[in-house]
Amino acid sequence: MKNDDGEGLNRGRRKLLIAAALLAGTRWPGRLEASEGTGSPAAILPAGSARGREVLILGAGIAGLVSAYELHQAGCRVRVLEARERVGGRCWTLRRGDRISEFGGAEQVCDFAPGDYLNPAANRIKPDHLGVLSYVRTLGVPVELFESGPLGQNWLLRRRPGHPLTGRRLRFRELDRDELGYAMQRLVALLEPAGTAPGLEDKELAAWARGFGELNAAGRYVGTAARGYRVPPGAVDAPGEPAPPLPADQIWSYGPLSAVPDWVDSAKYPTPVLTVTGGIDGLARAVAARLPAGTIRQGAEVMRIRQDAAGVTVHWRDAASGQVHQERAQQAVCTIPFIVLARIDSDFDPALRPIIAGLPYEPVVKVGLAFRRRFWEQDEQVFGGYSYLDDPDLMIIYPSARLGAPTGVLTHYYSVRDSLPLAALTPAERARRALTDLQYLHPGAGTDFASAVSIAWARTPFSAGCFGNWSANARARDLPRIAAGDRRVIFAGEHISQIPGWMEGAVQSAHAGLKRLAQQWELRS
């Protein structure tokens, strides 16, 4: 059945059905039965298989916490050293009162309204991230839908000069529907050239293109209600007037932002996507809560790593006292980001050291702008999703949670190109820059501005970058060597996976590392 939103209704129904399936069981405490097909991680290490073993975990991010949880479930004595005064690593949420420190001494205090928050790194759970979803279900972590990628009401703005549309805001649906309509018009012209009788297959394909592109009887695209109205429909005597399409030549020459429609429901921006209700750190805290008291030592910065025939010795410095202590275990799982690990005194295999030192990390900058009023909802009917600028290369993320709340936080996600100069600014300068950039898309937004926090990951202690980014050649050459570990040390983390930057990469890396530990136990037993 056709409707004014084109494919929108079908997409929406499909999205809700898939989301319902994903959400089924997520709030149940305890493990689901294996017969329910949950992908429960219980089989990683069979119960009791690690009894009598001692393993030291370096880092309490997702990979470290998952490793500790599974080892504890298997009967292992586990200790976790975490340099920060919190768990989660880059699975982190900023709320009112939280403090942010940077290299160089800059300090910020989050001043968001109660209930508002910013996830400065990890934020999304994709439908195929079965490892993360299994812990969501097992631990009863509450999750909700998150609008990922561009939605119809979101904005696009070309700021690069030299184009008729420079400086003009477009709703995403305008560009999306016009691109589709003109593409289908061209396809029909190719399938049904004037003066010829198309074959049955071409005729059927042309008929599909006419419907999909909402073309007129002559096979031309003249606009559609799905791209929006010049005069909205209303009562009986107000049928509405759809807005006319933009000229085809302006659409095709729009520039980099013309690719945005290709991202809808793509691998980069799949739908539906979930997030943890109230902040992504809820997942890390839920895993940590299942460990015995005293398992995790926070404020413990690893200073030195040594291995011998019987085990691993780690020297760490207490952030509170400055004193250096020593821990020893039979084996260790090291989840410290390589960009940090490269500066730690270790006796790793000399062949591995250049790999550890050579992995680049993305210097992402995220800025959270807090507002006293959700003007994007109230004035512009934007309810979640992403808007885009081309200069700077900027993505603005709108909250999907707490729709209709009086206050809210917009997240600025800057590209690598723009993150490097932003990282060199002070937090106050970043906030001013972000507010200026926002007002290109939302003129007058400064009126409702309340406060800001920013995370420059290249300047963040114990991270020094947002995620590891292997080149294709380095990934093929070096990742298997690193994944094999070094004697009694196993490496894990998002950077030891094929999906860096995602919590799922950390989970799958942890699972793979635990399997290697189990293999070592068998060889040494």
Automatic annotation (TrEMBL):
InterPro entries registered for this protein in UniProt: Amino_oxidase, FAD/NAD-bd_sf, Flavin_monoamine_oxidase
Plastid listed as a keyword: no
Pathway annotation: Plant hormone metabolism; auxin biosynthesis
Chain ranges of the Amine oxidase domain: 62-146, 271-510
Gene3D superfamilies, per database record: 1.20.1440.240, 3.90.660.10, FAD/NAD(P)-binding domain
Gene Ontology biological process terms, A to Z: amino acid catabolic process; auxin biosynthetic process
This protein's name: Tryptophan 2-monooxygenase
Organism of origin: Candidatus Thiodictyon syntrophicum
Taxonomic path: Bacteria, Pseudomonadati, Pseudomonadota, Gammaproteobacteria, Chromatiales
